[in-house]
Backbone:
């Protein structure tokens, strides 16, 4: 796939730390995600040869096209991190300048970089020099506390050689509160000629279509809306093709949830899989009767067979009313 094909009316799965791992990316692929990204990968951890960090970069050809997302607080560290990751041969790289969580921004990385347009220019320039013809994207928010540097940063990202820009239109200090302001995605489209990928508050198929129509963005990126809801991608594609989507039944949701657990156990082993899976259960079971009791039971179980038995019992109780 040529780089420009990443960006034309594609559905991207956002990188969500602790969620969009090897296993869940495959589930979203199955339901229509066109482009996926790794979880955030710390360039600092790579530099210090942290083996656990390397697992975040693992993928296979069925994941393509895939981007590996890197974060740090300086151009030199980010470039070193990308140099290490080149051996995995992803289709593209992404530089995170939008993560608002405390442990990232306290070190000047993620959304904290939006306070420093000069460092952003250096990061993008040095990354382009390193990668030459390999595509890379930059994911940003509209600013730290305000949109003060938004126009300048968007232009810098294009001028210094990024292949595309991903906009999550909240400030860093907003975290995930309030409503994302899609006007900034449209604004970015007016400012630059490189592709713009819109991200933020895509929770339904209608939201996805509306973002395309209201902002003129080239592609859209689905984040939290896809958690426990991987079929959102297929529903957006149905909507794009004016096809009525088949509703996912409760039984289908529960079956996918069990498949997720089993696939995770195959990849990580039982103990790690259970820890990771627990975070997904509230998303899969949202709105189901007595789901809080199910979540509580799973949180206290350490055997996969026991968890499957509990889910099966829950399934029968839901189906039988």
Residues:
């Amino acid at each position: 796939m040529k780089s420009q094909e990443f960006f034309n009316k594609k559905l991207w799965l956002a990188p969500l730390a602790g969620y969009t791992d090897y296993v869940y990316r495959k589930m979203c692929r199955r339901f229509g995600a066109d482009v996926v990204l790794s979880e955030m990968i710390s360039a600092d951890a790579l530099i210090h040869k942290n083996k656990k960090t390397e697992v975040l970069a693992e993928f296979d050809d069925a994941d393509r096209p895939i981007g590996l997302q890197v974060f740090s607080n300086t151009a030199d560290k980010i470039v070193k991190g990308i140099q290490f990751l080149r051996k995995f041969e992803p289709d593209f790289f992404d530089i995170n300048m939008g993560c608002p969580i405390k442990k990232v921004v306290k070190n000047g990385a993620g959304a904290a970089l939006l306070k420093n347009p000069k460092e952003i220019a250096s990061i993008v320039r040095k990354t382009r020099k390193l990668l030459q013809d390999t595509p890379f994207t930059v994911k940003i928010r509209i600013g730290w506390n305000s949109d003060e540097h938004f126009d300048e940063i968007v232009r810098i990202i294009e001028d210094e050689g990024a292949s595309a820009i991903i906009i999550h239109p909240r400030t860093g200090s907003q975290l995930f509160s309030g409503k994302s302001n899609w006007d900034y995605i449209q604004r970015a489209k007016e400012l630059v000629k490189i592709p713009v990928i819109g991200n933020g508050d895509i929770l339904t198929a209608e939201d996805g279509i509306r973002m395309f129509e209201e902002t003129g963005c080239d592609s859209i990126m689905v984040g939290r809306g896809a958690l426990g809801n991987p079929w959102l991608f297929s529903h957006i594609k149905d909507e794009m093709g004016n096809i009525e989507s088949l509703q996912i039944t409760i039984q289908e949701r529960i079956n996918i949830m069990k498949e997720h657990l089993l696939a995770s156990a195959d990849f990580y082993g039982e103990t790690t899989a259970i820890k990771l899976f627990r975070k997904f259960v509230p998303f899969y079971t949202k709105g189901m009767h007595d789901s809080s009791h199910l979540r509580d039971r799973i949180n206290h179980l350490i055997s996969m067979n026991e968890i499957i038995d509990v889910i099966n019992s829950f399934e029968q109780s839901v189906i039988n009313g």
